[in-house]
Write a structure and sequence with these properties.
The protein has helices at 18-28, 74-95, and strands spanning 6-13, 39-44, 54-59, 64-67. It is of the alpha+beta class. Its main location: mitochondrion. It is found in: Mitochondrion.
Length: 96
């Protein structure tokens, strides 16, 4: 997954639910070197919580993409965010 263009990541998940594994794997795929340039906010939800599990990524160009970890697997989630990251990479290479 291309995380170079992430500026903020918000993850809300229930660790005991179906979405828990997807959210944890996604969170672990963000390298520790991103901590200085990317704000990471994670919220663990209880089973009785009314808050919906979500993964929201804000990119450096201020575009926000939100996904539901209950409906996607890790591969699909990575592809969703990589699509916009590739567009930003292409813009960077054209400007250089």
């Amino acid at each position: 997954m291309i995380t170079k263009y992430f500026s903020k990541v918000v993850i809300k998940f229930n660790p005991m639910g179906k979405d828990g594994k997807v959210a944890r794997v996604f969170l672990s795929s963000i390298p520790p070197s991103m901590k200085g340039s990317c704000s990471i906010d994670s919220q663990v939800l209880l089973s009785s919580s009314k808050v919906e599990p979500t993964i929201k990524v804000t990119f450096k160009d201020k575009k926000t993409i939100e996904a539901d970890p209950r409906n996607l697997n890790v591969q699909e989630l990575g592809n969703l965010f990589d699509r916009h990251s590739r567009q930003l990479g292409l813009k960077d290479s054209l400007q250089a």
